[in-house]
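Re: [help] complex structure
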Amino acid sequence: MDLSLLNQTLRDERQVKAEIEKIRRRLTRSWVLMEICGGQTHAIMQSGLDQLLPPEIELVHGPGCPVCVTPLELIDKALAIAARPAVIFCSFGDMLRVPGSNQDLFSLRAGGADVRVVYSPLDAVKIAQQNPERQVVFFAIGFETTAPPNAMSVLQAKALGLKNYSVLVSQVLVPPAMHAILSSPHNRVQGFLLAGHVCTVMGYQDYLPIADQYRVPMAVTGFEPLDLVRGIYSVVKMLEQNEVRVENAYARVVKPEGNLAAQAIIQKVFQPVDRNWRGIGRIPLSGWGLRPEFSEFDAELRFDVGNIQTSESPLCIAGQILQGLKKPFDCPAFADPCTPQNPLGAPMVSAEGACSAYYRFARSSASMKG
Amino acid sequence: MSEASFPSMEGPVCPLPLKHDDQIILGHGSGGRLTHDLIKNIFLPYLSSPPLLSGDDFARLTRPNGEVVVSTDCHIVSPLFFPGGDIGRLAVCGTVNDIAVSGAQPLYLTAGFILEEGLPVQTLVRILESMRIAAQEASIQIVAGDTKVVEKGKADGLFITTTGFGFLPEGRTINGSQAQPGDVILVSGSMGDHGIAVLAERGELGFSAEIQSDVAPLNGLIQDLLAAAPHTHVLRDPTRGGLATTLNEIAAQSQVGMLLYENTIPINPAVQAACEMLGFDPLYIANEGKIIAIVPPDEAEAALEAMHRHPYGKSAARIGEVTRNDAGRVLLKTRIGATRILDMLAGEILPRIC
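Output below.
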C-alpha cells in the first residue's frame, strides 16, 4: 500500500483548498448539512476540515456511531451475560468502555470476567471452536457495514455445528434514522453526506425516495479530506440550484446497487425488526434481528437476561447530539465532568462519537470554530 | 547372612533426581544448588562484570564526578521475541535511554528476573545473550542481579526489572521543565515502529506486516547530539503513549504551547498502513529507539545534522516549535492546513469498528 500517494492526492492541502474555493464560489446563503457517519465526523475533526470550510456551511453530526446508539438495555444485557463464569464475551474494542447503567465491560474484565476484544466476529467463531466447554458470545453491533461479517459468523457457526456460539444482536440501519431526523419538527438539516462505507454494502437506491419525500439533496461521500469536500460541494451545488438528487461523490468505491454478495448474506441471516436507539428512542423497522431459523444463535434467548432496569446519566444530552439538534459544546457536562476517561454517555467513548471527536481535536480555544 | 545379600552401596540406591537443564523449575529459585548452578552456568557467561563475578551480594562501584542519575523500569512485553528485538534488549535499552535523556552517561545496570516455572532455558539464554549485546553496545556494565521463580501461570515467561546509574557532567540541566518559547522540536526518526511491530507479532493485526521494532540504546546518539547542541533544553524518549502523549507531558511541565506540522513527522509507510487499517494514530504508538529533542533555534540545524550522521538518527526531522500561546497544549497543523489539538492518549488504544 503506498500511502505517500494518498498524501499527495486525497490529503493534499492544495487540492482540498481548491475544492473548498469551488464551494465558496457557489454559495449565496448558509446551509446546514449533516454527515451521517461517525467515521466522517472523526475524519472532519481529525483533519480540521471544519475550520477550513466557509462559515456559511454548518456541519451537524449524525447518529452514525454504532456504539453510541446501541441501547443501554442491550449493554446491560451484555454485562449480565459477560459476568457469567462459563462465558467468553467477545466484542469490538470500542464497546468495552461504553457505560452501562452501573459499569462497563472493562471494569467487568478487571473483576475477572473473560471479555475479549476481537477485530472480526469470525475470530469469535474460532474462539468458540477452541473452547468447546465455554459459551462464546459475540456482541454483534453496528450499521449495515458490520452486518455482513456478523451474519457470516452465524452461518459459519451453523456450518461447523457449533452449540457454544451465539450473538447478541444490535444491528441498526441508516435510512430509518434519516426518516426519524427529517420528520422531527425541530429538524434543521437541509442536505446529507451519505456514509460511504454503508453505501459500499447497500448501494444508494434506498435513499432516492427519502430525498424525494423530504426534498433534501444527498451525496454519497468518502472519508478522506478531498472526498469529504467533494461530497459537500455536490450537496451545496444541488441546494443552490434547488435540485434534489442523490449524487455519488465516492464513485471510486461505491456502486449504485452496492455489494450484492454481502447483501445476500445479510438477507439469509437477518430480518427487519424495530430497534431502540440510545438517546433517540424506538424507530420502527430500524434494525435487523436474527431470522427464526437462526434463533438457536440468539444470545438473548440462550441466556435469561429479561429483567433489566436501566438508568441513564441525567446530565448527558447524547440523544440531541445524535439527532444533530445540539453540538457537544452545548452540553453543560462537556469536558467537565464528561471526558473520554470518565464518559457519561457513549458519544464521548467511541472514536466515531461526536463528543469524543470534539474533545480530542477541538477543545482549544485557538482551534474552536463558532 | 552372606555378604552377597546386602545391596551394593557402590552405585546410587535412590532414584537419581532428573536433571533440569532444559526448563526452569521452582527449585531454580530456591537459593540452593539449582539456583547456584543457574547463575553460574546460564547467567554469568552472558552477564559478566567484575562485581558480578566476585560472587558477593553487592557491587562496589567507582563513582566519577558529577550528580548520580538513577532510573528503574519493569519490562513485561508479550511476546518475548518480536521483529527487531526481545524483552532482554528492551530491558537494557529502556533504562539506558531513561538515564541518557538526562544528558548523563549511563554506566551501571542491575537486573531483576522473575522467571515462570517451565520457561525453556534456551529462551532464557537467547534473552541473556541479547542483553549482553545491548549492554556492550551501550557501554554499560551489568553489576548486580537477582532471580526468582514463580509457579506456572503466575508470570508470562519472564519479567525483567532493570535499574540504571549514570553520571551527569557539571552544569548540565536537561529535563521536561526546560522547554522555552521559540525552541525547535526534533525527533530522531519514524514514529510508532515498536508498538506496531509487537502488535503484529502478537497476531492481533489480522495481517502480516514487515515492521521492525526500533528498540536501541540511544546514549551514543544523545552524546553526539549534545556535542553539537550543548544548550539542548529537553530530551525524552516517546515510549508508551507515543509522541503525542510525551509532548503533552513536556508542554505541561514547561507550561508552554507546542505547534507541530503533521506533514513533517516521519512515519514508516508500513506503520501508517497498519494504523489506517485499525484506526490507530501512529502519534500515540510506543517507540523504544527514538528521542524527542527540544533545542534552542540557533542549535537546531547542528543538532539535526548530528543525528543524521548517527545510525539511529538517519531519518531525524524537525517537526515543530515551542510557542508562548496555549500553555500546556499541543496543537497540530494538519496535512490540509487546519490546526487542531493533539491530545494525550486517553486509556487503552482501541481498534475502531468500521
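The two ends of chain A are 38 Å apart (CA to CA).
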